[in-house]
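hey so i finally got around to running both of the ones u sent me last week. sorry it took forever, my laptop kept dying halfway thru and i had to restart like 3 times lol. anyway pasting them below in the order u listed, first the sequence line then the structure token line for each. didnt double check formatting much so if smth looks off just lmk and ill redo it

first one:
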Amino acid sequence: MEDIPPQDISPQDLAMTLLGAYVPDREQALVWAGGLVALLTEFGCTQNAARVALSRMVQRDLLERERDGRLVRYRLTKRTRDALAEGDRRIFRFGEQPESVDCWTVLWHAIPDERRDARRRLAVRLRFLGFGSVQDGLWLAARDREAEVAALLAELRVERHAGLLTGKPSRIVDVRAAVARAWDLDELAERYRRFVHTYRGVEPAVLDPAAAFGIRTRMTHEFRQYPLLDPELPARLVPPPAARADAVAVFHELYPALAPAAQRYFDEVITP
């Protein structure tokens, strides 16, 4: 294992990682604001940036603020609970053998600027479904994602700004060239290599709770990005990125091994 490098982490994204990894009762839990701010500062956020991020998450209907005297606590909204559940499905099944591809999905849209938040949310969710961006407003997935995308467009209320097709690529299409336009698999392979180099060799037994929490949180936050970046194309189309299997194995070994000590630290800091 090498030293864990600092990461340029969005406070809101990091807060989602913390909530997903350390709040088991997502329906009922109330998370102390002061403790959450303190944890965010451990990863390079200023206290002011952390507070602003949490306020924006309230504005985005990701958190509900509840006051108990002088204490402020946050409750996870349904939107956040749904997002975390979807993330869990993708993260913990990530790296399984992809099914054979018989149907591709193409989405195009022209969402106006006044709906830019919906456009941003659509892009994030499409990447989580395995889509890559071929060009502005044009997305491609090597799966049949018709049902999921139709539900997503309806949820965001942008159906009239989008079109959706499913089918097979023509035999005259260079599939590898199309893949290269939608996904940067070389950069992805390098990210996997760095992940394995950084976290392989971590020894949970020798870490105190604070160190276990820091390593597990950074590792989880980084691993959360892979379902957004990796389309998991079948090997008969494109060989899988080098070191993907090793990265998945490292994550699944360390995530539970670091959990007891990391959870103790989280619970201690989050308790007023």
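and the second one:
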Amino acid sequence: MDIELIKTFLEVKDCRHFGKAAENLYLTQAAISTRIRQLERYFGVTLFQRSRNNIQLTLAGERLVPHAENMLNTLRMAKQDVALASEQVAQISIAGTPNTWDVYIHDAISKIYIDQPHISLVAEILSREQLTRQLLERTLDVAILFDPPKVEELKIESLHMFKLIPVTTFQNQITSPAEVKRYIMIDWGTSFINWHAKEVTGISIPAIRTSTARIALDLMLQCGGSAYLPDMLAKPFIEQGKFFEINSLPTFERELFSAFHKENENEERLIEIRNLLRKEEPEAPAIMISR
């Protein structure tokens, strides 16, 4: 089977649109359709339910997704292992959920890159479900996330406690949640969502919902808006007079965790990595504050 068919299937699954998948893969829409038909013929099933403006996975398509992801991941790991074998370079894979990249992983990767030059790093952004599955399959060494899985085979360690503060680009005084303008809802994990629903009542329906601080930050700086951001990320913009803390709204403390398999073959290397991850306070990525 052509692995490109699998890549195309996953791209269509993510986009739910043949045209967008074609743009992302630099192909024509006709080529995307042909690849999906080839894959459907191979398995003898229909993978997508197609309508004019809506594409949904069939039950067969849903069942193919984890196998397709595993195929690509296994192939990627095989290529890396073969390439590294002759140089005897240790490879460590680190991944996190989207909401951890800008506030922690970016800085952590930089420190590991400088401190451990002989390690070949693989850094990815994955969903919580993908992180758990790859940890259990031992194709991922370290996961960084806000809501760690409760699985016996995995060891969970606390990395850092973030303070999420409400900030806005508007200078007018805000005395109640109802006065917050252009609110952007950032997904800081399950406990934050539950707390937000109870403690920040009356706030307007979010203009945007996103899983990354970077998207919220860009929108706020370009168009104006309000959001809950980590204090270390918001502080430089507050000092520059671009953001203003909303003192009438409550703050929230969010704990960040690392997860790894208890029987990981890279255990000695992981001890060094974990110590480095906990070594210093995280800093906001320079690319996000030099504006």
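quick thing i noticed on the 2nd:
The chain has three domains: 3-62, 74-160+256-289, 161-254.
anyway thats it, ttyl
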